Amino acid sequence: MRFFLFILWAIHWLPLPILGRMGKLLGTCAYHFWARRRRITLTNLRLCFPDMPESERERIALEHFQGYGRSILERGILWWSSVDRIKRLIQVEPEIPYNLTNAGPVILLCPHFVCLEMPGAIFSMGAPCCSIYTEQKNKIFDKVLHKGRIRFNPGVEIYSRSQGIKPIIRGIHKGLPFLMLPDMDFGIKDAEFVPFFGVPAATLVATSRIAAATRAKVIPVIGSFLPDYKGWKVTFYPPLENFPTKDVYADTKRINEFIEQRILERPAEYLWTHRRFKTRPEGMPPVYGKDSKK
Q1: Mean per-residue pLDDT for 60-73?
Q2: I need a labelling partner for 52 at 20 to 30 A (CA). Which of 16, 46, 141, 227 fits?
Q3: Alpha helices in the chain (DSSP H)
Q4: pTM of the prediction?
């Protein structure tokens, strides 16, 4: 891992078009040689787009791996490049809503697209925020990842997922916008089976519950690639209206529908390598075959 991080540090000096093409090549190799994640990706695409030709699903899967490879190598820019360089490479649309985050509690809803690191980076350059992350098994990588996410602002707070919801509530009450990633399968605890492209998916209901507990506005934000290796775009959407309601299921379904709409705009950039449907309703068979328990 030390050698990999050294390589990542060494190449972050390269111009982004070169670094991006290197990442694309890395992703292409991973698509052909990382059979398990390729199977998971294609399974997800078959479930979500059953009417799509297989050749089209394979094209999207390959492009996803290429984007994922890019995101790995380009992350070195976030971890070690100057703030000026990063700002030049990130295009914000329409603007960072500091006026809203300064006016009251806010949840920044950031689904798992491959450029998901960009919204937190650009936001924290102008104001502190808080978020959670899953501790990495490799302690060296975990330390670098944690340091990279707090480097732009000493007021940023990062909580381990194992700490539960209480630090999040405290952070929001302190005035820190909460950067939330709502769309991974962590099992049925604190989740409900909510349709995701028509497939029951164990989906955390925390967004609705935290918003209700803190009276926070929920502002979706998406990171994506700019064309021709010019950088990244971070899009802040208007706050969700009439959210939350007293119906946690309906709120969570609404979030999934928002994510579906964004996926249709850039299908290759969603994190299809994640086993989004690993938790199944009682009586329904697993969908990943021999990969279901790994």
Answers
A1: 97
A2: 227
A3: 2-11, 16-33, 35-48, 54-80, 83-89, 98-101, 117-124, 139-150, 166-173, 206-214, 248-265
A4: 0.94
